[in-house]
Amino acid sequence: DFRRSASRNPEAPAVYYFTTVLSYRVIDESSDALAAALQDFGLQKGDRIIVDLQNVPQFLIATYAAWKLGVIVVPVNPMYKEQELSYFCIDSGAKLFLVLDEIADALDLSFLDKTAVEKLVTTSALDFLAPDEERPDMLQGTSKIPIKGALDLLTLIEDYKGKSVEGPYLSPDDVAYLTYTSGTTGPPKGAMNTHGNIAFNARVYEAMQRISKDDVVLGMAPLFHVTGEVAHLAIAALAGLPLILYYRFDAGETIRLIERWRATVTVASITAYIAVMNHPDIRSRDLSSFIKAYSGGAPVSEALVGQFEDLTGLYIYNVYGMTETNSPSHIVPWGKRAPVDPESGALSVGVPVPNCVMRIVDLEEGSTDLDPGEVGEIVDSGPIVIPGYWRKPEETEHAIRDGWLYTGDVGKMDADGWFYLVDRKKDMIVASGYKVWPRDVEDVIYQHPAVKETAVVGVPDPYRGETVKAFVALKEGMEGSITPAEIISFCKSRMA
Ligand code: AMP
What we know:
This protein is α/β, with parallel strands linked by helices.
């Protein structure tokens, strides 16, 4: 899709990075050059590279470079620390690690020695900002930092300028991304998002959001999450649209750039919408272009949708999905309003996306179909579902049975086919749309020498939806010696 859009209209804008414009030609040629460099490094179809970036143009360049070679992209959250990154490097077997210089600078990179990573490549958030552009507030303190032992991305692109690769044939079954998620249980696993999955779900958004050539995509969600991968990057590539990127979410910058570029469409977490709603500029800026606002990844209440609409005139559409369904499995169709379940008060997450079948099955065995109105586990099938988890056959078998993905989400369908989520079977906390597994947090807290026992739970939070709370018991004789703040800072240094 990207190649077709780039050849059709090479001078069209592909990225608005703050107020810098990068054309499809620039992204295409830069990714050609990077693909040639990757090939020279010995990377070939099926190999993996880690991409540890904020929402910067290099994310697109690296992704398209990798795909031109048939290489799999492993995007990771830039908040991850050494312990987490080491796990993703080892589990994916990645050979190259691409990271923002400021992230690399803050890490002890010696963990890479125990992985298969052979090349470290760094890049700066300033690299693709036009030299005459006024520095955005968010990048005021940023400077390009040389990292020992690392290659510089921009230099590589310069060195290989004009070169390209003879790419291998890619089928819809070839893997595009390994997106790490803990799914419904256990340790993080690489969901194998195939090219077929991503291309299909980009078409789902195109149809359900009524995407046209006049749309401008706002990159409000992180690109490393499946929402950004599909609802930002893939939909822009499919329809040849510009994608607005601004490093990381910030309410003021969001409002400024909607007005500046006449953004029309996005998918983001409800927490981000709350931040936008509470920003003082919301009343003074012209946001009239922005008509397709979708919220996914976390529960949305009817009250919040109402408040947002009262303030902005904008109706927030609900969309539901998982990393394993490549973003949307259910969505509120453009022009429709989600009904509210009279029993639970839950706002509908939408109707199943085209060409897929979703069922509600009994919670115990997961084998009996329930009637409309009855509560059970949601199971999904169709071209949205991943083939499985990277090198985890048992986990795959547990999650996907006979082609049916067991979501771990508990809900029901009404007589008209609208779905509602009412509970979760999986032990997961949804904080600002980010998924936190209590077990992962407990594992880190147990590394503290003073801790005897801990239990981590989700508690309600008006802004983040839910947030993480840990109950900690200290070892005999240690009582009073450690403060909660010390445990929290211990955790902060060890996890995202
Ligand atoms: P992730 O893999 O990070 O996309 O997380 C997927 C999970 O987020 C789903 O299984 C749901 O539990 C939750 N989720 C996603 N979208 C919604 C939504 N619109 N409303 C409520 N929960 C959601």
